[in-house]
Amino acid sequence: MKYERIPLGPLQTNGYLIYENGRALIIDPGGEPGKLLSRIRELKLEVEAVLLTHAHFDHIGALEQVRDELNCPVYLHKEEKDWLGSPQLNGSGVFPGIEPVECREADYLWKEEGEKQVGSFFFYLFETPGHSPGSVTYYFINEEAAFSGDVLFRGGVGRTDLHGGDQETLMKSIHDKLLVMNDETEVLNGHGPSTVIGEEKETNPFINGFGW
C-alpha cells in the first residue's frame, strides 16, 4: 500500500491519497479539488471512498466536487452527522474571510470503533474525540500508519477552542488510543509534517506536561 500527503486549501490542510492495485481512498479533501483529481487521474486510480477524520471546514472544502466527480461514498463519525451542512458547526461560519462550506450528508456514519473494511482496504478505526466530538483515527496496521486528523501533531496537539472541543477529552484520546501504538507508528496528521509515536512521547511538551 502507498500513501501520499497532498496539502490542500487555504490552510494547506493535509489530504491523503491511499492506494494499492489501482484502487484508492481519499482522506480529508480540504480544498483545491483540481489538484487532487489531477493526481488521481495521473495515477489512474479508482477511488472507492472518501474518509473524513472530522468535519471541520478545512478538511471538507473540496468534498462536494470530489464526491460528484468520482461518484464515491463519504464516511464520517455519527457525532458530526449534522456538521457537513452547517457552517456554524464546521467552523466556516466562524472565521472572517472564510467562505461558508455546506455539503450534503455523509453516506455512511461510523457508530463504533473497531476493524473496518471499505472497498478493498482494511484498517482499524479509533474514536479520538477532543479536537471535535467525532474525530477519528484510521490506523492501517500492516503499514503502522495512523491518519489522525487534528488530534496529534509533531510537537503539538489539536486545538480545543472550537465547537465541541475539550482538552481533557483530547489528551485522554491521545494517551489511550495513540500513545499505546508501537513507537515506530507514523502519525499522518492534518497540518504540517508527519511524526512517529516514539518521538512524541519523548519530545512533545503537551504530552510530557500531562504526566506521560
Automatic annotation (TrEMBL):
A matching Pfam family: Lactamase_B
MF terms (GO), sorted A to Z: hydrolase activity; metal ion binding
Cofactor(s) demanded: Zn(2+)
InterPro entries registered for this protein in UniProt: MBL_Glyoxalase_II, Metallo-B-lactamas, RibonucZ/Hydroxyglut_hydro
Domain of life: Bacteria
Matches recorded under SUPFAM superfamilies: Metallo-hydrolase/oxidoreductase (SSF56281)
Coiled-coil annotated spans: none
Keyword Protein biosynthesis: no
Descriptive protein name: Metallo-beta-lactamase domain-containing protein
Alphabetically ordered keywords of this record: Hydrolase, Metal-binding, Zinc
Residue stretches making up the Metallo-beta-lactamase domain: 12-191
Organism name: Alkalicoccus saliphilus
